[in-house]
Write a structure and sequence with these properties.
alpha+beta; Aminopeptidase; eight-stranded mixed sheet; single chain; disordered C terminus; binds coenzyme A; 6 helices; 191 residues; globular
């Protein structure tokens, strides 16, 4: 089970259907901003929406766990997830987000590193992918810090709110991860 202390007060722990209320409360605290970059969050309004969303993602990671919350003592303040998990081709996709009040502390970086490390080291995966909005400069900076490379610009690759949108594809390979120079914050402290 993947759990990590990211800081003294924020821990990475599984996020599942037992956390519907905490997950909804987290989204509601920062909904407008989060929806700008993660439009699917607009579909998660009621408790039933949140349960269905968490259920739908449950089998996508290893150990049946795809979603992880960034938890303080009593609040979910962000999330990191394996959006795609394809062992046959040893490829997975990771995404992460935080409430704005927690930006700037390296938490998304540490959470993403923890998921990447777990997939490469414990699960034998080989390629991590990340899809972001081309205007999402903060997400691009985090991926650059992790050592991912910008591999391409996908034209009109998603259909959101009745219109097509472009995405940037970033990727990181297991040998690149193992060869990185700097140990990531929070990724080295085990469960
Ligand atoms: C994208 C997002 C997750 C990035 O969060 P973030 O806090 O900027 O990213 P990081 O965790 O990489 O933190 C980097 C910042 O923490 C600082 N930092 C402090 N300690 C650090 C540490 N130990 N390691 C790395 N960075 C650290 C960095 O200097 C940097 O600060 P700066 O941006 O002021 O220069 C966040 O902006 C967000 O949730 N956005 C909305 C949703 C979204 O776009 N999600 C991504 C698409 S799935």
């Amino acid at each position: 089970m993947l759990t990590r202390a990211l800081t003294d007060v924020v821990h990475l722990r599984p996020l599942h259907t037992g956390h519907v209320d905490a997950f909804r409360a987290h989204l509601d605290r920062d909904r407008q901003r989060l929806q700008t970059w993660i439009p699917e969050i607009a579909e998660v309004v009621t408790a039933e929406d949140a349960r269905a969303w968490l259920e739908d993602r449950a089998g996508r990671g290893d150990d049946d766990t795809a979603m992880f919350g960034l938890w303080t003592a009593d609040e979910c303040v962000g999330a990191a997830a394996y959006y795609v998990w394809e062992p046959a081709v040893r490829t997975f996709e990771v995404g992460a987000w935080l409430e704005e009040r927690f930006e700037g502390g390296g938490l998304a970086f540490a959470a993403t590193c923890a998921l990447v490390e777990h997939a490469f080291t414990a699960c034998g995966m080989h390629r991590a992918e990340f899809l972001i909005d081309p205007a999402n400069a903060r997400a691009a900076a985090t991926l650059g810090r992790i050592g991912a490379r910008h591999e391409g610009h996908l034209r009109q690759s998603v259909w959101i709110g009745g219109a097509p949108r472009d995405q940037q594809l970033w990727a990181l390979l297991a040998p690149e991860w193992r060869g990185r120079e700097r140990a990531p914050a929070g990724a080295g402290t085990g469960p």
